[in-house]
Structures are given as structure tokens and as C-alpha cells.
Amino acid sequence: MNHYRTDTQFGMNFGEIDVDNFAGGGGASTGIEAALGKPVDIAINHDPAAISMHTVNHPNTKHYCESVWKVDPVKACNGRPVRLAWFSPDCTHHSKARGGKPRKKNIRGLAWVAVRWAKRVQPRIIMLENVEEFQEWGPLLENGKPCPARKGETFKQFVHKLESLGYQVDYRELRACDYGAPTIRKRLFLIARRDGLPIVWPEKTHGDGTGQPYRAAAECIDWSIPCPSIFLTREQGNALGVRRPLAENTLKRIAKGVQKFVLESNRPFIVPIANYNGSTIAQSADEPLRTITAWPKGGSFALVTAFIAKHYTGVTGSNIQEPLHTITAADHNALVTMEAEVDPVTCGNIKAFLVKYYGAGVGQPINEPLHTITGRDTFGLITIKGQAYRITDIGMRMLQPHELYQAQGFPADYVINTDASGKPFTKKDQVAKCGNSVSPVVAEALVRANVKHLSEVAA
Fold first, then answer.
1. Could you read off the pLDDT of 158-175 as tens digits, one per residue?
2. What's this model's pTM, rounded to 2 decimal places?
3. Helices 427-435 and 48-57: crossing angle, nearest 10°?
4. Domains, the chain
């Protein structure tokens, strides 16, 4: 049970509560709790699945499964002053990821609920998170597309409205990787406060000039999960529960990724085959190649290289040694592995093939005549640290929810597979709640910088 003090000192109310109008799986609440050592008092979301995931992870919070517009701030707070009100309004109709599709005014306008809370209960601090394009919020044309001539007009009105209610307002774009999450996710954060104290932007903890390198996507990979070959037949794929054969465009993206992140990379990511299943031991190609004692597919010195493929049109992927690219609500992130063995003197019966990086073709069996040779290197015979290797297989699997949540910065014990009653969440729901969530590490950094000292004064 929460106990609230009603006495004041230096104009501060020690019975203040914290409210999260959250998105996705509850990343902001997780970060707030990590910073303050207490759960948020009230959490609001219209989606039952989101409320269910939030409830199992934040059981001491009062939950409202309602539209944010249907929750009366005065009734919800029940006379208690609000220290922090966090808002993560739907970003889909602001995001560039929507492309040229029409926007909906009512969804774009969800951020106005922050002004409603500012009017009704006057939170000491308001924090709002959205996509970078939120700064371009403006009127829509009759066809539902943003008016280019009035770009940013509504956003400026939103800021001015908060200022007219006595708030100092500032906003910046922050990246989760700068605060310790292994994802480059960049979002706009707006802070408004009315208590006369300064708005503080937290210093970066990772990256250039911090003494700590960015965390890598490779940290999040569960290497014990099999990565089925992209060359399986439909029947073989069905037996393993994976879709095979893959679409031609997917194969092209994989081929481009192998070329960019393996064959042309000065520092490809290497997982020794002996440690591939059941271990996260890995090394970079700029280190001496470690001794491989056995290879599951037939004794030979071998290695696995890997990268992240993105199933977006026109996107090749990302280096697994860098933070993961932004996680979306759709299932778009895949792990691609390329297995290779030391090139023998004679091919013998070795299962091998050549990867082709041009035209519509993806590859060819090694026991067929070589396909047309172009004016550039186009086949997958590779040299790593002076040792010749022959590609023997390429695997691909989608990243699993627990890997995505780790990349987003959620704690390892965050429950994502079942709700409080034991009912399982679908994979689609798990991925969606991750992609729509705030990275907890950024929320924690912002709250530590702007709110935590108020708790220390109250204590």
C-alpha cells in the first residue's frame, strides 16, 4: 500500500504520485521505477494486451484500460498531486515509416491529452515521447496528407499552450544506445515543468567520449536457437516450422548483406563453430582465430559469421557488432548466419556453394560450371585473416521476442510470454509491444535527471 504525506516544504508536495499514459509493453514505467525505486501509481492504455503485460510486470500500479480521453485526471488522481505525468501518444500517424499513406487527425491529436492533464491536475513535470517527425505536426490536407506549407504549425501551438499554462518547455532527440541499450532507436523527448527548477538533459553514458563503447546487437542473440538454411525445400522448411523457399527479394537482401557485412567487411563478426550452439562466445576477425576442436557437420576448421537482416524494401541490414536498428511493431528483424570451412585442396563431397551478388541469381552449386564471370568479384570464396574459406551454408531466422526486448533495454526478468493469469501472449503481440514501447534506459536517465532528486528531498 502506498502512503502519502500531505505536508509541504519549499513548495513541494510529498504525497505526489506518478502517472504513465504508456505505449507498448511499458518501457517508460520500467525506467521510471528503476530511477525512483517505486512503481508508477497510475498506468493508462486502451489496449487490453498492453494492460495485461503491464499488469503482470507492475502489479502495484492502478491500471485503466481506457482511451486516454475517457480517463478523468481529477477522478483518477483522487486529490493527490502529480509529480510526473508521462505521455507516449500513438506515433504511427506522425512517423515517416507510414510513407505516403493518409494520416488521421484524431490519432495525430492524441498528444493534446497532455494539455488536458496540465489544465486539470497541473503535474509538476510532464514528459512526452514520440517519433522525430512529431516536430512536424501540422494540419492535414483534404486527402489526409500533411500540408507541406504548414509543417510544424500544430506542434508549435502545442508547445505554446503548455507554456501558457505556466510550464517551461524543452525538447530533444535522444538515442537509446547513448544510454546503454543495444539499439540505435532515436525518439523525440519533450519535458515541461512548472516548479521553477531547471530542465536537465542527462549526459550520455555510452559512445564516443564516455569511456564506455556502444553495446552490440550480438549481446542479445540467443545462439542456442537454430538458424535454418535458406536453401531448404518447402517440405524441409515445413518440417522445421519455417517458411522456405524464401522470396526472391529476401534472398537478394541476404546476398547483399553477406557481401557488405562479411565478404567486404574489415571486421566481420565470427562465432566459432564449436561454440555456436548453446554459447554466446564469439570473436572478431581482428583477433587470432581460436582453435576449433570439432565441427558438427564434419570435422574441419570452420567458423560462422553473422549479421542482422532487415525485411524492409531497400534496406540491407546492420552489423551485429553495432546497436540494433530501431525495433518496430512488426516482425522485421532477422539473424543471418554464414557458415564456412577451410577451403580444401579438392572439393571432394563437401556440401558447398557459391553466393552470387548480381542480377536475379542468389547462388549456384559448386559442382556446376561457374556462372558468368563479371568485371568484379561476385562469388563467395572468401579469405579471413589470410585463411581461405569456402561458404558451406547460410541460415536465417527471425529474432525472437526475448532478444528484441533485451535490445530495447528491458531487464532480463521482464515477463513477456504470459499475463498474470498464465494466458500466453502471441509472438505478434510480444513483438508489437516491444516495438511500440519506450526504451527503459532512456526513461530512467530522464527521470533520474529531473525527478529523482525530488524523492531525495522528500525523504
1. 999 999 999 999 999 999
2. 0.85
3. 80
4. 8-213+423-458 (3.40.50.150), 223-399 (no CATH)
